[in-house]
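ok, trying the design again with the full structure, not the truncated one.
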């Protein structure tokens, strides 16, 4: 065998090894890239799932806050309604007594005073939401004021 044949044989074996090594490295590089991309997609899915879970927790927290606020508003509305009823009742008792005293002293009350009293009583007695929905404890006073002479 001549040295040129040996060199040619070695060169072709070396070339084959180099080409095979190149393709192996290229395939390994593709595999590493594909694995990295798969891991990135998995990380992105995990982040999205965590984000959705966080959003759900926030929604639950907001729902709890809204329920608590509604309960507080309802409580404040009831307290306010009770205060308004008491205030109107007191005002009606005072006004009715004043009108009755005025009628006893002068024999009459003005039609405007009677209308004002009747309007206040209507608001006091009318069912909610148009009125205060009071229980009718002032109906006797209402009848007394309606019976007074007017001018």
């Amino acid at each position: 065998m001549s040295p040129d044949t040996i060199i040619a044989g070695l060169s072709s074996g070396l070339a084959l090894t180099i080409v095979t090594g190149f393709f192996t490295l290229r395939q390994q590089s593709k595999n590493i890239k594909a694995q990295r991309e798969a891991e990135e997609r998995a990380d992105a899915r995990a982040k999205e799932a965590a984000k959705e879970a966080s959003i759900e927790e926030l929604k639950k927290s907001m729902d709890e806050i809204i329920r608590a606020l509604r309960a507080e508003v309802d409580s404040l509305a009831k307290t306010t309604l009770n205060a308004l009823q008491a205030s109107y009742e007191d005002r009606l008792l005072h006004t009715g007594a004043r009108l009755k005293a005025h009628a006893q002293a002068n024999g009459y009350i003005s039609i405007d005073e009677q209308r004002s009293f009747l309007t206040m009583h209507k608001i006091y007695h009318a069912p909610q939401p148009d009125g205060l929905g009071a229980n009718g404890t002032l109906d006797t006073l209402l009848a007394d004021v309606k019976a007074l002479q007017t001018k």
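Keeping the full-length input from now on. The chain has one domain: 41-147.
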